[in-house]
Amino acid sequence: MLNKLTKNLNQILLAVGTIILALIVGGVIISFSGNSPLDAYFSMFNGAFGSKQRFMEVLVRMIPLVIMALGTSVAFKANLWNIGGDGQFIMGSIFAVFVTIYSGLPPVIGIPVSILAAMLGGGLWAGLAGWLKVKFNANEVITTLMLNYIAVYFLSFLVYGPMMDPKGSKMPQTEIIPQAFRLPLFESGNRLHMGIFLALIIVIIMIFFWKSTVGFKIGLLGQGEKVTTYAGVSVKKMIVFTMIISGLLAGISGWTEIYGVQYRLLEGITSGYGSMAIVIALMGGLNPIGILISGFFFSALLVGGATMQRMTAIPFSIVDIVQGLIIIFIIARTAVNFKEIKNKIVRRMGHVK
Amino acid sequence: MEEIKVNDYAVVMKNIVKEFYDVRANDNVNFLVKNGSIHGLLGENGAGKTTLMNVLYGLYHPEEGEIFINGIKQDIHSPTKAISLGIGMVHQHFMLARPFTIVENVMLGRKSRKGILLDTKETAKDLVALAEKYKMKIDPYAKIWQLSVGEQQRVEILTALYQGAEVLILDEPTAVLTPQEVDGLFVTLREMKNDGKSIILITHKLEEIVCIVDEVTVLRDGAMIGNVEVDCNTTKAELTKMMVGRDVLFNFEKSNSAAGEKKLTIKDLKVLNDKNFLALDGFSLDVHAGEIIGLAGVDGNGQKELCEALTGIRTVESGEVKLDTINIENKPPLFSIKKGIAHIPEDRHITGLALGWSLKKNLILKTFKDNSKFGLIDEKKIEDRWEKARVAYQIKANSGDDSARDLSGGNQQKVILARELENNPVILIANQPTRGLDIGATEYVRQKLLDAKGDGAGVLLVSADLEEILQLSDRIAVIYDGKLMGILPGGSDVKKIGELMMGKKLEVEQNAK
């Protein structure tokens, strides 16, 4: 028990250390650009937490990011590098909106069906990559990435073509979904919607998911295909299954963004959530609570960065730089894992004859 | 220690200290090798033998200590330097480029005598002459992958000699050889000794080298325990006590209860290996309840593929495997697990354990469904399971939350045993169960195999270690090139087993008589 506690504490300390290190190095880069890093970070912080409005905006950003990162973490735990969150997000959104616009179902049935459709769209898109891996040994990094492009252009095709809003002004977007289907807002004049509860519920579900036999099998796959087969678990089935779970969460993430914020399909809807979800998942140590925390941090970074750009002369790119630095430090952290090095040596000694 | 006259020795290593973080792998070790002698370096796994030799070969740099080669103090900072001083090393895992020929491997890393052109022909000629001098037979143009393990070892030795080695270090040279191949190796080593070369044999199995070495140095836990002159008459018990620090049981009490009914029937099994060649070519064997049948053979003759086929991990091309009357070939692994076929796999790091996982979870790898409630893993139940296993199998670990990676090989194997023997298996397939374990753990694992037999399990013991096979088996089957060469009664003559291991069929030999 104590063991576990220190392990979690270590994890948190490492994450905080990573962020601080990234901010320090980022600060050096800001000062090279002729600005004061303290001013930059202050306006960034202020931009994220300076008012209730801004804080709520942070939460709005957090909803899809956390859900998608949870999905990404499922695949990563199984050692499957699903980097196609964007594509699965888009396919989920397309499926959901399609059902809402064209099925004519009443909201009571229509809302749950649209969520299921989003899960189906995202799940199928990721499951396809899993199937290609099992069937043709196609690397999932390549296939999920390529499927992203297909999804992006398919979305463009739809919003410029068959699904373009007939009453609209020739903008690349679908018609707006009716009020009754949307996620309710907390208060008018603010974008925070009830999807925040959905995100929290999914976090809790994921905590139990990893304690379940299904989570056990996914984690086992991450330990190696040989030991998985040996334990009597089918590697092929698990690869496809894991990808589906991973993708359906990305699909739900798309659903919250459409039904809570955008209310319609439009071009460029993901704006790079996929890559950010990867960073969040990794920084959160693939652990649901960790992902919730790092998701919150990244959302604050995004919202704060946007404010900073408006208030000061410092460009938003600094947010990208900090994000990049965090990725580098996370990778460095695993590459220079001191415990691992020590283990390696001890293990080597174990082989000493 | 009295003042050492460094001039009398080919190698003098004085007060060597080598540390890895907080672990002392070599603790003030003195190691002396006389000119023109064969010297054994004895110790359990982890005693620091290979570390010491890696220091001598320039792979590690000692924190303290001095090295003298032929009486001159040397700083051996790299293998290149070691080679220039006439030190050669044959590693336990051969360092050969498999698609290349023998002569090409010998030429690797050497300057050609013909400038930018390769001097393949000249080298080949030299090589054949060198091989003949030391009574080895080679075809310099054979590709490495076509060679047996023993032949590959010869190539390694030749490479070292060709580089001008006067001191040759051999790391566990006998572990991979059949008895006949060992004899061949010893002929070569004696020739080298007569030629004035010094040889160091690293081993943890004394009996294999006792007749050839002049002197033995024993290491334990990184420290030098003693230096003894030995000959064929030296008893094993005495030196083993030095190695382990206590008396070790060598003779297990084998209960000679009659074997029960036939449990597992393997008939005309054909199985492909990873490269799609036939690994098993019409292999047949029966396993009875309450017996240990030892399957002897040189590594890579289809043993791994057999174990995988029996447990559903590998596809069977043709033939059948029956448990009682049920066909189990090409059934998913879960099927044989449910039917009570336990499996101790050859590779515990990749197959037998989820190394990054806790010990608790490793114990329930195959039974996680039975250890869950409403689809959730029952933490309390697996904590109890762990506690029981820890006590019953004397697993040394801080807690069940430790990752399997942090355990020693012996304790890792105990975790696997605890898992596999939990539900009294009908059949136990143990593939190289004691490989890489120290004497204490080896003793323990072997006892557990006997216990499993006593509990009525049919045990198929696959091992390249003939001593192990002879110690435990009621019947001994020999596999060669994917075929059964014959079945001998337990306690048969080692030479006879060795002949079968090299592909001589039993029937042929009997007909000749």
What does this structure look like?
- The complex is a heterodimer of chains A (353) and B (513).
- In chain A, 76% of the residues lie in helices and 0% in strands.
- Chain A has 353 residues and is mainly alpha-helical.
- The longest helix of chain A is centred in the first third of the chain and has 31 residues, at 2-32.
- The model of chain A has no long low-confidence stretch (mean pLDDT 89).
- By secondary structure, chain B is an alpha/beta fold.
- Chain B has two domains: 6-244, P-loop containing nucleotide triphosphate hydrolases (Rossmann fold, 3-Layer(aba) Sandwich); 262-512, Rossmann fold (3-Layer(aba) Sandwich), CATH 3.40.50.300.
- In chain B, strands 6-7-8-3-9-10 form a six-stranded mixed beta sheet, with helices on both faces.
- In chain B, β21 and β22 form a beta hairpin.
- At the A-B interface, α8, α9 and α14 of A face α1, α9, α10 and β18 of B.
SSE blueprint and pairings:
The complex is a heterodimer of chains A (353) and B (513).
Chain A: H1 2-32, H2 37-49, H3 52-77, H4 85-103, H5 107-136, H6 140-160, H7 195-209, H8 213-223, H9 225-230, H10 235-262, H11 273-283, H12 288-311, H13 317-335, H14 338-350
Helix pairs in contact in A: 1-2, 1-13, 2-12, 3-7, 3-8, 3-10, 3-11, 3-12, 4-5, 4-6, 4-10, 4-11, 5-6, 5-10, 11-12, 11-13
Chain B: E1 9-20, E2 23-34, E3 38-42, H1 49-56, E4 64-69, E5 72-74, H2 79-84, E6 87-90, H3 102-107, H4 120-133, H5 149-162, E7 167-171, H6 179-194, E8 198-203, E9 215-220, E10 223-229, H7 236-244, E11 262-272, E12 278-288, E13 292-296, H8 303-310, E14 316-323, E15 326-327, H9 333-338, E16 341-344, H10 348-352, H11 359-363, E17 372-373, E18 376-377, H12 379-392, H13 409-420, E19 427-431, H14 439-454, E20 458-463, H15 466-472, E21 475-480, E22 483-489, H16 494-501, H17 506-512
Parallel strand pairs in B: 3-8, 3-9, 6-7, 7-8, 13-20, 13-21, 16-19, 19-20
Antiparallel strand pairs in B: 1-2, 1-4, 4-5, 9-10, 11-12, 11-14, 14-15, 17-18, 21-22
Helix pairs in contact in B: 13-14
